[in-house]
Target: Protein-lysine N-methyltransferase SMYD4
Amino acid sequence: MDFESLFTQICHDLEKSGHVKEISTRFSTCSTDAQRISFVLALDSVRARFQEPLSLAKRAISTPCKSQELSTSHRVEGNNYYQKKLNWKAISSYNRSLLVGEGEALALAYANRSAVFHDTSDWLHSLRDIQLAFDHGYPKHLEYKLRERQGNCWLQLGHVRQAFISFNLARNLLLVTTTNAQQSHKDKLISINSKIVKLGDDANPTIGVSESNESAAASIERQVIKKRRTAPDLNRDSNALLPAASTSIELTDSDDRGRCLVATEDIQIGTTVIVEKALASILLEEFKESHCHHCLHWTPGPVPCHQCSQVGFCSTLCRDEAWASYHQSECGLTDSLHGTNVGRHGLLAVRTVLKVGRQRIMDVASEDDGCNPAGGELYDSTDYGRTIHRLVGNTARRSVADLFRRAVMAVYLTSLIQQQRDGKEDDPDEILATAVLQLIQSYPCNAHEISHLAFPLPGTPSGPDLPSTLQQIRLCEIGAAAMPVLSLINHSCDPNVVRDCYGDVIAVKAIRRIARGDEILDNYGYHYATHDKKERQLKLSQQYYFRCNCLACAQDWPRYEDAPKLVDRPELYHPIHRDIGNFSSLSSGSCYPDGPAHLEESTRLFIGYLEAMDSDASIHLPVQEYSMAQEVLKHCWALSATLSPHLAVVV
Ligand SMILES: C[S@@+](CC[C@H](N)C(=O)[O-])C[C@H]1O[C@@H](n2cnc3c(N)ncnc32)[C@H](O)[C@@H]1O
Model:
């Protein structure tokens, strides 16, 4: 149930009771989040209003969400698309069939999806789906088909022995099938025999068939995981006190903006200074069919959760890791949680407490001395207590009404995740609710967006006949993440670093020259080139509670379109415009995977232009060409981080 409606009802109840003023005065005397939670928990009107949504959530959790019938209908829809060669649409229907499938329906959907992957030369995903079809009890009398497909995939991947094993299994199965008198079976047998003969004696394996198949399944899974784009390495050794960052930066304190990161040496444009994996992350609901619920990487063929029909994973490894870590506590509740409409920060807060676990949260609460030291001690991204727990929440600057609303939200979310299948009635856990309250204050000022480039796909209105240019590629927000080290970076409307996402890992690169001693500055979504000063200042003060004093604000720089051009420097102006024109007209064909030589070339070119402008004392920002060169560079990096055509929402 939607939290805002619930909260409005609670406020009405309080007004009707005539106690609003008194409650507000008493609530304003609470000085800690623990006190705020205890206060809300003691209000009968709040508990009473929670009863209905909580029993609905409990019912949802115990309602079976897998359905053979629904799975079959999505599969049949997929088969129709497949026959019409609408491969992406077929995959999308099979994905849906798999999310809701169980038993044989699951096996059949995996098998059918493997056919599309096979036909689109995605041998690895085809092999993986074939294996999963067997694991879920694919009918024996049809197995020969999958074995032959499996043999083809192995062959294409250069694994001749595995191909030989699969073709032999296909032949043996065909020989014993009852209908082998049919002509089609005979033809198939001849074709498989000829494949086996072609492979020759060299391929004849010495190891047992079942043993090799088992290790093959593990190796397929490893290969699927290896296909994910990985972040670049840090430019230097990792900083001993700040392991996600390089020794080129360190954590310190500033007079007016709290903790900050500064350069310990001159940093060149393009240098990777931070590579951090999220302590916790969430995927937005609309991407559940195209991205992994756990690592947030794009996947053409998600593997569903064993129990619920709401989430998919890029691999069985991610599925098992998520289950062991947090998914078993939220399984069946994801629809109820999304239904609260509390937004990404509320959902991320819930995910964080589930992932960290009650015991650790309790330990951290008891150790908390309220200090927030900068530097001098280890700041490890995996350590909730020393990092995420201590993020700036701007509590003192929040109004009583804002804190009350958040405290009620924290209790509601905590009560939801405490709903159990066994029907036990638990009182809301104060420790967890307090942690959630702290996070829903700090995340709006600290959490990071996870984004992914979306390409138009063949078969969508914008492709494939039209060359899809870079303008058609959109940066989509697909999730949110808690990144402890990135959360130490302060804002500038003219930042010197940018972020690139590799699933739930973010790499931070210099987009300007950074001199030793300079602060590392990111942009919180309000850049001088795109938003004017008034709007920036307003948004930053509303969400982040500070007044920006960066150079762009101090000198009130014009936005991009009103900034001067470098016309009096033809030796830079002309080549920059020429190369931007060349870059923009690149077709998607050359942007797509695995041969991004032109991206490296463009990256090198535009770093060169930015270096030239940075080192020329006669060029003063803002300058249009500087912004343009930065934009191209950001685009090159984002493309290199994604580079996979995918099913996400596009244009
Ligand atoms: C993501 S945190 C940055 C790290 C923070 N300084 C700390 O001590 O943890 C965001 C908060 O830092 C402060 N901040 C960020 N940029 C700032 C700036 N340019 N000027 C003043 N305060 C800033 C604001 O309090 C903001 O809510």
The two ends are 31 Å apart (CA to CA). The chain has 24 helices and 14 strands. The first helix runs from residue 3 to 17. Residues 207-211, 458-469, 587-595, 645-651 have pLDDT under 50 and may be disordered.
